[in-house]
Structure formats: structure tokens, C-alpha cells
Amino acid sequence: MMPTSTITLKEKNDTRSVKVRRMTVYQQSRIVETIDDTNEIFYVFFHQDKYLNYVPAKKVTKHSHAAKAFKQGVVLYPPHPLIETVISEQPHYKKQSFNDLFKKLQKQHSLQETALIASYFESFIKKANLIQFIKNLYYEERRDGKLLSCYRILHVLKDMAPENSLVDTFSSDLQFTRYDELYKNEDQATLAKDPIYVEKHLYLEKDHDESFQKLSAFYNDRSRWIDLVVLYTARIAHAKKPEDFASFHILIGEHFDEPGKLAILEDLYKRLPDFAPLQQQLLTSYLNDGKVEAVLTLITQHSIKLAPPQSQQLFTLVKQNKISTEMTPEALQNLVLTIFEAKDDQAEDILHQSLNSLLSEHDITYIQEWAAPFKEIPKAKPLLKKIDEMHRITEDPNEQRRLGELYHFFHQPKQAIECMSWDMELRTDDPEPVQWLAKLYHELGMDDEHKAYQQLYIDMVKRA
What Gene3D superfamilies is this protein classified in (predicted)? Predict the structure, then answer.
């Protein structure tokens, strides 16, 4: 399992370690929600995979980018390999002023993309100031006569502040009418130069087959594989198509090792537990990784019937590892039933092991109820008769020796000692319970008690 995600935030001389609570991936942004020791929450913003800034998450306005990102994006929880991929790029995250950030953005990105990134911080900058910044970008392009760039910047402003007066002016500006027609008619030459617009509209329609295919190709062409994994996660949860899952499985195999792949599959399983192709892939992964308890939980919850090769793989794992005391009784029951159904030669031994394990934690009445599904299995009957006998004689003082023998058969020496001690008190002249006690203490490695009862047995035999 991956470690719990923590990162370091720095502001001037202040450094704090924060724990990652979740991350959302929404269009080109990622927002990592973190919390410190005082329960203060911070949002760490990324554009694609590049760190931008972090802010205290004191108030998130209803229709802001951050609110949409957590509501409409794909939210991941740690430990998750995609979170680790995003936050592992640098050792700490330094806070900077928005003025410094926006100056850098204008040097690294187009003014349209700068406006888009600035809009991420709507809840954390005074909205009037943010709108003015985007307007300044618009006027800069307008002065240079770059009307198409102006048109694109105003679309960003419209998404963030549709009621703004400049948006109204732009909507009725005849100079932009020709661009409206080009976008409305999906002119390919125009759209090819505006990937921000293309991605936004494909993302909004991603639940439709054609838009999904176009957006996945869009991400693939730009090597944006994190977005591609997230897109497939949302797609599979929505459409539940085996062919999408097959492509998804190939995709994660190209970018993650086996533990990483398994973590991503388990995340998808939380979103879509009843999807049969995913169940089968998880089953294969658990078997290959030797996770017996996970296999049993999966087949119990979904009544999965193992194929013969899967059954053999499970039996091999069980034979290599003794029955775990941490395995739930339900999982254990399902394991034994599966093995008996497969007519495996080791079924009786595994049932015996299971009863041994259960007797260390539960009383005989519980064991009887647990064993009820096996009563009609011929090879299970000899063991179950012993359990029934134990239940019948458990309170009978005259049968404590026999009860102790049965406890010993099921590898429960401590309970056997209680029974033999009771029998010894009832039959003070009988050396047999004393001999049993010497044997049982020897098996427990309690040498002093073993020697004492061994000597007592010898003395009793001599007196007889």
C-alpha cells in the first residue's frame, strides 16, 4: 500500500506539513485539498501537472471553479497513485502573491490560457480585481489588433462572470460575429487553434460516445495520460462498457506497476462495485498477489464462481499459507465451500484448519451454526459429527475427558486442559486425565507443569 500522502507548504519563513485529504481533476486543473494539525484546510492548485499556488480554503463561492471542480470533476482519495504522481514533482510548495503568479503566467502561456488559469482562483481573489485582470488581457490583445484572441479571452470571462458588462458588449459586437459563425459551424481550422475551447466543450459532453472518443484522442495526442486515466474512470462508471474497461486496463498498465494498477482498480471498484469485468480483473490481481482474504471477500460479496484455473490458484495459496485468524468467518466459510465444490483432495484438511481457527475465538454453538452449510457434504460429516458431539457433552461433568480429547483433536490445548483438570478433580484416583495434562502442557512448552504432572502420573501408577 502507498504511504499516506503528506506535503509541505511554505510561506516566507513559515513551513507546515499538511495531509492530503482528496484531489479533484477537472478539465485542465487539479486541486489538492489538504489539512494541517490545527484542522486548517488549504487548496493546492495545479494547471495540468504544473504547480500554481496554494490558498487557505476559508470560503468557496457557489459557482466558482473550485466549487465546480469538486462537484463535477473526478475526486480521488489517498492513497492513490494519481495523487502521488501529481504531488511528487517537488519537495515543497511555495506560496506566492497572485501578482507574481500572473506575471509569470503571461510569460509562459498565451493570454487566453493565462485568463483561464486566473479564473481558477475566483473564490480567493476579490472578484472585481480578477475580472479587471482578465479585461486587461483583453485590452492588450485589442490594442494589438488580435481580435480572435480577444474573442477567446472574452469566452473565459463569460464562463466566470456572464453578467459582466464587457460580456454584453462583446456579445453584440459585430466584429465578433464572424467568429461566432466559425465556432457555431465547428470550423476545423479555427478549432484546431483553440484547444482550450475544444477541451471545454468535449468535457461538458464527455458522457456522449462521440465526445468521449474525441476527448480521449485529444488527451492521447498531447500525452496527458493522467487526464486520460481520469476520463476513463468517469466513463466506465457512467457507461459500464466492457470495451472501455479493456482499454482502461491497458492504459494503466502502461504507466503503473502492479501495486499502482491494483490501487486504481480498487478505486474504480468503489465507484462501480457491480461491474463484472472489473470484479474478474480484481480477482485475477488478488490471486496473483496472494491476497487470499481479498479474493474471498470479493467472491462472497458477488457470488462469483471461480473457473478451474482460478480455483487451483486459490487452493495453492491456501496450502502455502495456514488459515489466517484475521479472515472473517464468512470469508472462511466461502473458502471451504468453494474447495468442497471443486472436489479438491485437501478440502477436509482445510475444513479441519478452519474449525481449529474458529474454535480459538468462538463457542461451540457458534461453530455449529457456521458449519450448517456443510452438513450435506459427505466428506465433511465426520468432522461435523465431532462438533455436534462437543456441543452435546459440553456441560456434562461425566464427559469432560472426551470433550478434552475433542478439543485436542481441534488443536485447542488450553480448552483441553480445562476439561482434563475438571475430569481429574472428579476422578481423583484415575491417572489418565493426569497423563493427558502432562501431554498437553508439554505441547504448550510449559516444562515445569509438564514435569509436575508427569511425576504425579508416575506416582499414581505406582500406587495402583
Answer: Tetratricopeptide repeat domain
**Architecture of domain 398-464 in this structure:** Alpha Horseshoe (1.25)
d(CA 405, CA 128): 85
**Does the domain formed by 211-289 have CATH 1.25.40?**
yes
Question: What CA–CA distance (Å, rounded) separates 443 from 439?
Answer: 6
Report the alpha-carbon distance of residue 169 to residue 186 in Å, rounded: 23
Can you say whether residue 445 is alpha, beta or left, with left for phi > 0 and alpha for psi between -120 and 50 degrees?
left
The residue assigned the cell 462437543 is: 390
User: Which three cell numbers mark 361?
Assistant: 475465538
pLDDT tens readout for residues 371-414: 999 999 999 999 999 999 999 999 999 999 999 999 999 999 99
Domain residue ranges in the chain: 1-95, 96-204, 211-289, 300-394, 398-464
| Packing angle, helices 111-119 and 127-143, rounded to 10 | 170
* Residue 448 one-letter amino acid: D
Q: What is the pTM of this model?
A: 0.80
